[in-house]
Specification:
The chain is of the alpha+beta class and about 90 residues long. The protein is built from two helices and seven strands; from the N terminus they run E-E-H-H-E-E-E-E-E. It starts with a strand and ends in a 5-residue tail after the last strand.
């Protein structure tokens, strides 16, 4: 098994069109490491997801359908085989 990171449609052009990547637990022990591994594999995502090394406020991250902001340790939450990490950009409008 592996950890799957799901890439939303607006970010796929910067990830060579892929909708998800599979990471080994060794390269993604935490949410933060998984996001860094994603950006390392697809550098075009860096400017869309990060500003000055910080995740942009409109980029929401979910671990197994739970918002990581509500988990202990947020981006340091540990990952294990079979986990799903989803990146969901916030959408605004009116």
């Amino acid at each position: 098994m592996a950890i799957l990171v799901h890439i939303p449609p607006p970010l796929r052009p910067y990830a060579e069109g892929t909708d998800k990547i599979s990471l080994a637990p060794a390269e993604a022990a935490t949410i933060s490491q998984a996001l860094k591994a994603l950006v390392a594999k697809h550098p075009g995502l860096n400017d869309r997801m990060y500003t000055n090394g910080q995740l942009r406020p409109f980029v929401n991250v979910y671990l197994n359908n739970e918002d990581v902001r509500f988990l202990d340790g947020e981006f340091n939450a540990p990952l294990k085989d079979g986990d799903d990490v989803a990146i969901i950009p916030a959408v605004g409008g009116g």
